[in-house]
What does this fold into?
Amino acid sequence: MNVIKPPEGLSLQINAADGFRKWWQRFEIYIQDLGLSTDTIIKAILLHTIDADTLEIYNTFSLSEEDSSDYVRILDILEQHFIPTANETVVSYVFFSQGETLDTFVTELRGLSADCKFGDMRDSWIRDRIIIGLRDVQLLQEPNLDLLKCINISCAAELANIQTRQMKA
It folds into this structure.
């Protein structure tokens, strides 16, 4: 018996790249849960779970007989269509200009940094972006500050600020 529901239909109305990535992740989880290995059945489920606009786009692809029967190839072609090659300069600019609650900020930084090719420096750059964004002197005074410690200190400071505002209200 399958526990996982089928993914919601792929809809690309707001952010095509992000919507496609999330749908693809849910689709793969669903296919794993079903235990399917037949390309024909998986392709049918894939085409059934995309919206009408995406199906129309799929229908414009000139696929060979071999490609049209390979669901992995179809996903690759859809990915190439909906997720263009990232402009590293633009992605880095967006990475360094975020601002909202700490949880949202860190989540967005982690997502944005995935396309920045930071490599082993990813956690350090995220930590530095948090420090720059919060302008918290306490973070600068902390020796050997890693990302987890930075997040913990920043979360505690954010919570203290919220509680202080609530007490004053």
Summary: The chain has ten helices and no strands. Residues 16-82 form one domain.
